[in-house]
């Protein structure tokens, strides 16, 4: 159902976008330092009417892209309209955003300034994510992230790879704002989902190896929009340790104690029983709820 909805909305974007193209190309060109925003409309400083034309040297950070460069923004009666293009100082284009009636509508594309490879494409409708978002490795072009959006909320499939794009780390199905099913291997965690809840073995990997190696993996994943996973960085026991918790039907399953651990627990409980009976008497019968408290006390001791 959500796929049909997305396709209908994308079809609407294809109608909006050509109209926006026709509207651009009129008016004067002015530098971003010559404009101001007044109650959501763009004005040329000291002008009484909203601006129509092109703003040059507009900061890419306004589009959540933090790269040195400048953008040419088309404006119609005070609102962004048509295609905005951003380039580095050497003229290399690294960003393209489509607007209609002041909101992102259509496809946003981003390229790597050095390799010139496409690194991001995402669909917008009326300023929110709508459709497919894809991210790519800037060196080899491999896909490293794919997410489906509806009204800025994840729906359907989400896939995330490691930074080189050769290992699938996350494969989830989203519904109603939550991960409904699938698996996620992210950083120090490995989780499995069923019916929107943890199911089966949930693992945590604590890194003991080269700190710089871990930090580099994290930084690369953040930069690319991919992910990293501790077991891919080293060897078990040597570089990382593993702890595990098991869930069934969304509830934590207590793991059976080893023989040695059970012996220690029994000894702890008996010691505390002896202490109570030394005060209450040797024949004192300890209530079941008190015994359970003793057990919990010894378990967390």
The gist of it:
The protein has 301 residues and is α+β, with helices and mostly antiparallel strands. It has helices spanning 2-23, 211-224, 259-280, 288-300, and strands at 28-31, 35-38, 41-44, 53-58, 70-76, 79-80, 82-87, 93-100, 103-104, 106-111, 118-125, 128-136, 143-150, 153-161, 168-175, 178-186, 189-194, 197-198, 200-207, 240-248, 251-253.
Write a structural description.
This protein has 301 residues and is α+β, with helices and mostly antiparallel strands. The chain folds into 3 domains: 1-136, no CATH class; 171-255, no CATH class; 259-300, no CATH class. It has helices at 2-23, 211-224, 259-280, 288-300, and strands at 28-31, 35-38, 41-44, 53-58, 70-76, 79-80, 82-87, 93-100, 103-104, 106-111, 118-125, 128-136, 143-150, 153-161, 168-175, 178-186, 189-194, 197-198, 200-207, 240-248, 251-253. The strands form 2 sheets. The protein has a 19-stranded mixed beta sheet that branches. Helix 3 (259-280) crosses helix 4 (288-300).
């Amino acid at each position: 159902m959500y796929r049909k909805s997305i396709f209908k909305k994308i079809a609407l974007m294809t109608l909006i976008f050509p109209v926006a193209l026709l509207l651009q190309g009129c008016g004067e060109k002015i530098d971003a330092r010559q404009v101001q925003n007044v109650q959501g409309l763009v004005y040329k400083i000291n002008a009484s009417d909203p601006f129509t034309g092109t703003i040059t040297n507009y900061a890419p950070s306004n589009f959540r892209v933090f790269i040195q460069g400048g953008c040419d923004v088309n404006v119609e009666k005070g609102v962004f309209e048509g295609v905005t293009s951003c380039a580095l100082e050497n003229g290399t284009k690294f960003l393209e955003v489509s607007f209609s009636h002041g909101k992102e509508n259509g496809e946003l594309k981003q390229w790597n300034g050095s390799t010139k490879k496409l690194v991001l494409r995402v669909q917008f409708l009326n300023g929110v994510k709508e459709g497919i978002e894809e991210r790519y490795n800037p060196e080899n072009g491999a896909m490293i992230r794919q997410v489906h959006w509806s009204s800025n909320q994840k729906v359907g499939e989400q896939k995330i790879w490691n930074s080189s794009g050769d290992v699938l780390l996350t494969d989830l199905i989203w519904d109603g704002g939550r991960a409904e099913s699938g698996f996620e291997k992210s950083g120090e965690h490995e989780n499995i989902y069923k019916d929107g809840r943890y199911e089966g073995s949930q693992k945590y990997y604590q890194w003991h190896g080269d700190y710089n190696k871990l930090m580099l993996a994290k930084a690369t994943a953040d930069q690319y929009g991919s992910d990293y996973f501790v077991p891919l960085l080293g060897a078990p026991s040597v570089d990382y340790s593993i702890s595990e918790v098991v869930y069934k039907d969304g509830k934590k399953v207590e793991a059976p104690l080893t023989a040695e651990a059970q012996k220690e627990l029994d000894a702890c409980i008996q010691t505390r029983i002896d202490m109570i009976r030394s005060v209450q008497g040797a024949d004192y019968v300890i209530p079941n709820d008190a015994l359970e408290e003793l057990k919990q006390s010894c378990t967390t001791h």
